Amino acid sequence: MNQDQFPPSDDDEVDENGYRRPSKSQRKRDSHDLQALGEALVTMPKDRLADIDLPESLSDAVDDYKRTKSFEGKRRQMQYIGKLLRGVDPEPIKEAVASFQLGHARNALALHDAERWRAELVADDNTLTRWVAEYPQSDVQKMRALIRNARKDFAAAPENRSGRGFRELFQHIKQTLEGAGRTEGDGDDLLDEGEGED
């Protein structure tokens, strides 16, 4: 091993043999990065984790974390996951986590887009003209009926609102956006969570 293996940095330390090694601060930052990666891993669904080529010990540790109930147990298990991550190449795992998070971000944007359209369609008749201009394949009669039902629901006293009109309009908007390729990923679960929001 020679000094050229580590690019020189102001944070590098030189040991007694003259070799450069990452500074204590750099090692601590790296450790925190791996800890954050571990925290992101445990939030991923089991089917997405299965797609990542995790070592068995790391996969088991993530499963154990998800089963652990106590705060202290979770803290210790997360430290163990961080320790296991130090022994593997983190780059493929980082890429898989980033891809998963990007998919969630896209789904959240699609959800907000559908909710924005719903709110504007219910609030203003001119919005339907804009909608039809952007999505000419839309069934205008059906859209008018869905908007009318959503408005009736909205006009009712809060205790008498069923939310059905809002949900049906939302579903129709979502399906139209998906059909037009405006939503990405496999985020139907995220979009469905917003159906009942008024």
Description:
This protein has 198 residues and is mainly alpha-helical. It folds into two domains: 86 residues, Diphtheria Toxin Repressor, domain 2 (Orthogonal Bundle), CATH 1.10.60; 91 residues, Diphtheria Toxin Repressor, domain 2. Helices cover 67% and strands 2% of the residues. The chain is built from nine helices and two strands. The protein has a two-stranded antiparallel sheet. β1 and β2 form a beta hairpin. α5 crosses α6 and α5 crosses α8. The longest helix has 34 residues. The radius of gyration is 25 Å and the shape is elongated. The termini are far apart. 17% of the residues are buried. The N terminus and C terminus are likely disordered.
Layout of SSEs?
Elements lengths: L12 E2 L5 E2 L2 H20 L2 H5 L5 H12 L3 H15 L4 H34 L2 H9 L5 H16 L8 H16 L8 H6 L5
Antiparallel strand pairs: 1-2
Tell me the name of the CATH homologous superfamily of the largest domain.
PSPTO4464-like domains
Main pleated-sheet profile:
2 strands, antiparallel
Which CATH class of the largest domain applies here?
Mainly Alpha
Distance, first to last CA: 64 Å
* Whole-number mean pLDDT: 77
User: Total helix count?
Assistant: 9
The tally of structural domains comes to 2
Order of helices and strands: EEHHHHHHHHH
Structural class: mainly alpha
Proportion of residues in helical segments: 55-70%
